[in-house]
Amino acid sequence: MILVLDSDATEEQIQGVLARVEALGMQAHLSRGTYRTIVGVIGDERKLQETPLEAIPGVARVIAVMDPYKLASREAHPQPSVVNVSGVKIGGGNLGMIAGPCAVESAERMESIAKAVKAAGANILRGGACKPRTSPYAVQGHGEEGLKILRDTGDRHGLPIVTEVMDPRKVELVAEYADMIQIGARNMQNFVLLTEVGRTKKPVLLKRGMSATIKDLLMSAEYILSQGNPDVVLCERGVKGFDSFTRNLYDVAAVPAIKGLSHLPIIVDPSHATGKPDLIGPCALAGVAAGADGVHIEVHDRPDEALSDGEQALLPERYAEVMRQIRRVAEAVGKAMV
Ligand code: PEP
Ligand code: MN
Q: Atom 1 of ligand 1 has which residue's CA nearest to it?
C-alpha cells in the first residue's frame, strides 16, 4: 500500500504518518520526491482494509497494491481452477454447456427439453424451481416439486443439474437435489446467502449482479471461498445499460478481464444478457472466443407457453445450431466440449 501525502504536509505530519503505520504493525518506507512525499507500507495490507488511513493528518491518497479478494485472485492461485460438477469439468480448457428452461414447469416438458439439449451437446441441465421475479405476482416456481422433476430428468439423461437458491433457509434443501447451486444476479450481494452456500460442498454458479462491478463479483466469490467452498464458477449475464434494445448490456470484456484477475472459471449467459433469441448465438460465440469456460442458454420447446422468459428462449433446433457453431469456435481456441 502506498500513502501519498499532501503536497504541503508538515514535517510533524510526516513523522506522525510513519509513527501511525508502525503502530499498526507495518513497516513504513519514506520517499521524499521533488513534488510529493510518499510512504510505502510494507506488510500484509489486507489487514488494513478497514483502517481509515486517509484520515491520518497529512495523507492525501491511499493506493492499494494487492487485490482485496485474496482467495479468488490469481496471485493466490496462478493456475486456472477446474470445477467438477458431478463429473462435468468447467475450466482449465473444459467447457460447461448449461441449458434448459428458465423455470421447471412439468415433468413432460422438462423431459422433452432435456432430451433435446443433451442431443445437442449440453452437459449440465438447468431449470429454476425458485424463481427470482421482479413482480411478486409473477410465477414464483414450483419449489421442491420442481427440484424433484429436475433431479429425475437429469438422472434419466445423465446430466448434472443446476438450479437457483434465493433463501438462506432453503440452501440445505436445494443442496440435497442439485449438483450445482445457482446464485442469481439479484442475490449476488446477499452475503448471508453466499455464506450459507459457502458452507456446502456443492459447486456454486455465481451470476454477476446487474449493477455489479467486476470487483464486486470477485468480492462475492470471496465470501463463498472464505467459507471453505473452493468450487465457484462465475457467470457474466449482462449489466444494466442505457439502451433498452437489449435486456442488459453484455460485457464480453469482463471474461478476459476476470481471467487476468482470478483463477476461477467464468462462463457467459447470452440469454439473460441480451434477452433476444437472434443475439444469443453470436454473443455465445463471442464469449467462447473471449475465453469463457462455458455457455448458459435458456431453451424451451414451446416458448409461447413458457412460465417465464419465453421471449428469450431458443427453440431446441436453434440451440443445436448454435452448439454446432460453438464447437467450431471452441476448437479454434483449444477448448474441449464433451
Ligand atoms: C435465471 O438464470 O433464470 C435468472 C433469473 O438469471 P439472472 O439471475 O442472471 O437474472
Ligand atoms: Mn431466466
A: 102
The CATH number, out of the four listed (3.90.1750.10, 2.40.50.840, 3.20.20.70, 2.160.10.10), of the domain defined by the range 83-332: 3.20.20.70
| Per-residue pLDDT, 59 | 97
Residues with CB under 5 A from ligand 2 (ion): 102, 309
Helix axes 107-120, 143-157, angle to 10 degrees: 40
Q: Which residues does the chain have with pLDDT short of 50?
A: none
pTM greater than 0.85: yes
At residue 45, the pLDDT reads: 84
Residue type, 216: D
Class of the domain covering 2-63: alpha beta
Nearest-CA residue for ligand 1 atom 3 is: 102
Question: Ligand 2 center to residue 102 CA distance, Å?
Answer: 4
Helices (H) and strands (E) in the chain, counts: 10, 14
Answer whether 197's CB lies under 8 Å from 225's CB: no
**8 Å CB contact between 29 and 21:** no
